[in-house]
Write a structure and sequence with these properties.
CATH architecture: Sandwich
Shape: globular
CATH topology: Immunoglobulin-like
Largest sheet: 6 strands, antiparallel
Signal peptide: 1-17
CATH class: Mainly Beta
Number of strands: 10
Number of domains: 1
Keywords: Signal
Oligomer: single chain
Number of helices: 1
């Protein structure tokens, strides 16, 4: 009976975790992206003092375990925005999302909630 209770509890936790909305920030967005051959190229904007931006991509429902790391380009202190560029080989990707980690430990995702950017080929 204990095993059954644990299984039901774990199954419930996993199901609930997949439908929870992700934290977002109005200043974090992927501003453009395109495919060139098998490479995904793009740009993103984040709040200033963002530590890193990572791009997670998938083929259908199968998410690749290693993200593409974006490179910081420059900061616009007056607007409070940092600009980033990313590129990486994603030969079979169908969609992706971006994750920004801020210096204060918070994390934000783009696009909003549980959506992802769709790649047109």
């Amino acid at each position: 009976m204990k095993f059954l209770s644990i299984c039901v509890l774990l199954t419930s936790a996993v199901v609930n975790a997949t439908v929870l909305p992700r934290a977002t920030n109005d200043k974090f967005q992927v501003t453009r992206f395109n495919m060139t051959g098998s490479f995904l190229l793009g740009e993103a904007e984040t709040p200033v003092r963002t530590r890193s931006v990572e791009i997670y991509w998938a083929e259908g429902d199968s998410w690749h375990p290693v993200p593409i790391r974006a490179e910081s380009r420059w900061d616009d202190q007056a607007r409070g925005i940092s600009f980033w560029r990313f590129s990486g080989s994603v030969p079979t990707a169908t969609h992706f999302y971006a994750k920004a980690s801020h210096h204060d430990g918070s994390q934000f995702y783009a696009p909003r909630d549980t959506e992802s950017y769709h790649i047109k080929r």
